[in-house]
Amino acid sequence: MRGIARLWRRSIQTRVVTSTVLLSVLVISLTGWALLRDVASGLADSRRVAAISEARSGFEYAQAQLDASVETEPATQVQVLTQMVDSLTGTRAGRQTYELVLQGPLVDTGSAVPVRSSAAIAPGSLPDDLVEAVTTRSGTFWRYSELSVLGTSGEAPAVVVGSRLRSPGTGDTYAMYYLFTMAEQQNTLDLVRNALLLGGFAMVLMIAGVAWLVSRQVLNPVRLARRIAERYAGGAFEQRMHVSGEDDIGRLSTSFNQMAVSLQSQIRRLENLSRLQQRFVSDVSHELRTPLTTVQMASELLYDQRDRFDPQAARSAELLKHELDRFEGLLSDLLDLSRFDAGAARLELDTVDLAAVARQAARDPVLVRAGIRVRLVNTAAPAFVDADIRRVDRIVRNLLSNAAAYSGSPRLEIEVRQNESCVSLSVRDFGVGMSGDENLRVFDRFWRADPARSQGGTGLGLAIAREDATLHGGTLQAWGRSGEGSEFILTIPKGGGAAAPPAILSVFA
Amino acid sequence: MSYRRTKRDRVLVVDDDASLAEMLTIVLEGEGLTAAVCRSGDRVMEVFADFKPDVVLLDLMLPGLDGMSVCRQIRSTSAVPIIMLTAKADTLDVVRGLEAGADDYITKPFKNTELVARVRARLRRTHQLAEPLVFGDIVLDPAGHTVTRKGEPLDLTPLEFDLLACLLGTPEQVFTRELLLERVWGYHHPGDTKLVNVHMTRLRSKIEDDAENPEVIRTVRGVGYQAINPSP
């Protein structure tokens, strides 16, 4: 049942064929019914007309017989009547197309009326209203009825024609009825009905087939278009629809192909742009680095000999060196970021023990210089992940120098935890902390919590750290509360899977 | 440590950038080294034969013959230590340079102290063996800086010799890549695994029967390398 509902929901073809079949069944039934009705009434009418004229001649003959018979003797009268019925039914030849009933003489006494008939006609075959009309009025009357002969099974439709006869001799009145069977007409009607049923059924089948064919003809290109669209979605833009003719389907194919061409060219343009950008970054990198190297070497040489300079020159040498260092840091950060943006950053995966990374980080000279004490939590057991050790080191170093430069905290906690799918490393400080808004903005490029407290960093460290984490399929989260400190949690999935829920939940979460 | 104090060590600078080449010369001469400059890749072999340097500083981006080819050319005739200068932190370039035969590399921009440290490290022999070392069918002779395997002499560069001597010197000890960088390359270069990986691959291809399934120097997953003595 669910399968059918699903088929109905998903297949236009099923819906089209089903509704076509239902509608055509309705139309064919209506037409068939009307046709059958017309045929039936036509057959009955012609039978009735023939029957009435045959009956009339019968009635005339009978009346003539009665007129001719001047016998008043009841016995002779009975004989005359019997002969009359026999001779009238004798003309039927082999075909029993009608039965004859003669009632009478009719008397008003209420006693049983003698009846002569050509067969054992079941009572009720003569409609009561006809009997009444015939017995009370003069003229010829007719009704449709069912003729059933006693001793045989089944009824046949019949047309009953009746008239009153008068015997001038005795003054008796008789009611004479012709019961014309319409079995032949019924047979014809049955034949027509069966033909109609069979024809209708065949027609419905054919219409279903036609609907199926037509809908397939219309739907096939649509299905083809769908399959190609799915391929486009998958990134394969080389597929084209076959264009044939200038009809709607042909135009659909043409538009579809135009869309693909335009998409493809747009994507190529963007790819070219991206390649140009990457190329540009690489060129800038090389072109800037060589002179920068020379300048930096020269400035270092001057800086090392600043004792021999006069105070202004010595200070200039110092400034030159410091700002060149900063410039170099900025250049390298910018180049790293543009590599991320261009999608050119690649991982060099290796097995890395994050616990060892944490232990190493605790001895980082940045922390020693800032006089920050570090407490290691759960870093005794190894915690292996597949990672690029240089990038992981860079993330941790960025977190440490960030804490050293901005948190104002005298101590740090570095914790490592793992679950089945990932390893997390958190760096927590107990300094100025961050507000909710700052938690969100801390990874923005060139963003600083307090511009006045710029410590000479590039403002790109955390942005790069986040990119590095993302490149591993991992996450870098920032948590914090104003005045209580902040916590950064690096999570790297084991086995290069997708980012999993971190193994450490922040105390500020 | 065996410094050669008899004469000034000679450094050949191969770089097309005139200013940088001059600056390199100033810094190196300031450190008591003799430096010569070659500014085109095509002329390197000529200058190399004349100057007979102890170390080559080689820029990867050169007009004429490119840095990689120069590196391969020098290596085909000499085991002299080669340090690449590269503007590309692009690891693929670095690995290709190392595979072409370079011992070490410095990424521009670098500090003077870093440059000098690298050059000094390459001039210095780091191994401290006094006696010849016999390790299975491998024999290291520290006096002649030669290695033989099954009696056949192996063609190792000084760096490869030091790397092998370091590992075989204390068999069974697991050396992390960091420790090897410190002992063999002579400085701490955090996490620069490709330097060790490339040289280890080349060393294995020379001393192992099957470099894919090494038996002398084993890899300890996630940690580093250790030498296994087949006949202790």
- CATH fold group of the largest domain in chain A: Beta-Lactamase
Outline the biggest β-sheet of chain B.
5 strands, parallel
The CATH architecture of the largest domain in chain A is: 2-Layer Sandwich
Query: Which percent band covers the strand fraction of chain A?
Result: 15-25%
Average pLDDT over all residues of chain B? 83
Helix residue percentage of chain A:
55-70%
DSSP strand count of chain A: 12
Q: Which CATH architecture of the largest domain in chain B would you pick?
A: 3-Layer(aba) Sandwich
Uncertain spans of chain B: 1-5
Question: Any idea what the CATH superfamily of the largest domain in chain B is called?
Answer: Response regulator
Under CATH at level 1, the class of the largest domain in chain A stands as Alpha Beta
Describe this structure in words.
- The complex is a heterodimer of chains A (509) and B (232).
- Chain A is an alpha+beta fold.
- Chain A has helices spanning 2-10, 12-68, 74-90, 128-136, 183-233, 248-304, 311-341, 354-362, 365-370, 389-407, 436-441, 461-471; strands spanning 98-103, 115-117, 140-147, 156-166, 173-181, 350-353, 373-377, 384-387, 411-418, 422-429, 475-481, 485-493.
- In chain A, the strands form 3 sheets. Chain A has a 5-stranded antiparallel sheet with strand order 2-1-5-4-3, with helices on both faces. Chain A has a 5-stranded mixed sheet with strand order 7-9-10-12-11. A two-stranded antiparallel sheet of chain A has the order 6-8.
- In chain A, helix 2 (12-68) runs antiparallel to helix 5 (183-233) and helix 6 (248-304) runs antiparallel to helix 7.
- The longest helix of chain A has 57 residues, at 12-68.
- Chain B folds into 2 domains: 10-123, Response regulator (Rossmann fold); 133-227, Winged helix-like DNA-binding domain superfamily/Winged helix DNA-binding domain (Arc Repressor Mutant, subunit A, Orthogonal Bundle).
- Chain B is 38% helix and 21% strand.
- Chain B has 8 helices and 12 strands.
- Chain B has helices spanning 18-30, 44-51, 67-77, 91-99, 112-123, 158-169, 177-185, 193-207, and strands at residues 10-14, 34-38, 55-59, 82-86, 104-107, 133-135, 138-141, 146-149, 152-154, 174-176, 217-220, 224-227.
- A 5-stranded parallel sheet of chain B has the order 2-1-3-4-5, sandwiched between helices.
- Chain B starts with 9 loop residues before the first strand and ends in a 5-residue tail after the last strand.
